[in-house]
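Technical note accompanying the year-one report. For the benefit of new consortium partners, we illustrate the data format agreed upon in the data management plan: each record pairs a sequence with a structure-token string. No post-processing was applied to the example shown here.
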Amino acid sequence: MSLKKDCAKPFVKWAGGKSQVLNEIRAKYPPFLGEKIKKYAEPFVGGGAVLFDILNHFNLDEVYIGDINCELICTYTVVQSNVSQLVECLHEIEAVYLSANEEQRKNIYYSNREAFNLLKATSENHAAPSFAKGCLNLSSDSSVKLAALFIFLNRTCFNGLYRVNSKGGYNVPQGSYKNPCICDEENLRNVSTKLQRVHIVHGDYSLAKNFIDDKTFAYFDPPYRPLSTTASFTSYSQSGFDDNAQIALAGVINEMSERGAYILASNSDPKNADKKDNFFDNLYARHKILRIEASRAINSAGNGRGKIRELLISNG
């Protein structure tokens, strides 16, 4: 699929992002997407590689995205509704950071990380999840500032990780980049245009059940099941996503499949570490399971990089 000049692409780096395996995922799109299937749902949107591929190539009636990560959803909402102010803020941050020396950049990074965590603590709302309106209880200016800091940290931190500690504080160290692109204005404006008719929801994936029907293509890309007890390198939230959560997700996926929706899901392949581990084979026995190759993009140990298998699970 060729891209037009006004096409959008992910504006943040994201652990487990799907850009490198888009061809394999595209091959599993429903055959009548944009015709009989006029809705799309992505309840774990992350960096949105599949979302933007869909928006760039198909004319759909309704699109739903969601995520439990409040700051990520805040940033999507600001890009959608206030991109000009966001771009202005990012240009200011970029100019200061790129003109600084190494020691100054270090100070700027950790000062901005602290500012982000202060805004994050202000924005967090533990009431019932809802459709994103700004950044929950933040003012418009504070929402833009949080989104700008989110993008800045994503572009300058170690390997684009999003990781929080037990108290919910973002704690990823500074990365080593000579000339990071902090403000990609053209793409941000393209993304904003593509998001204008998208429902952006902060909350648990189960909220998507109210949107998904038999005219929907739903793609589920949850936090992957770790291949070992030490393999989990990131946490989107304090709650994590354990085997019980994977089982609960499979229940929702089965329910949506029975509703008539076209379902696609991604996850790690436990057989990378243990050929006898049939966790997902058993959990999704009623569906089709395709094993594809993907590069391990984030690992601090050199011998941990390379090709591993991932799963694509579908009902069609």
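Partners are asked to follow this layout when depositing records. The chain has two domains: 19-64+204-314, 71-185.
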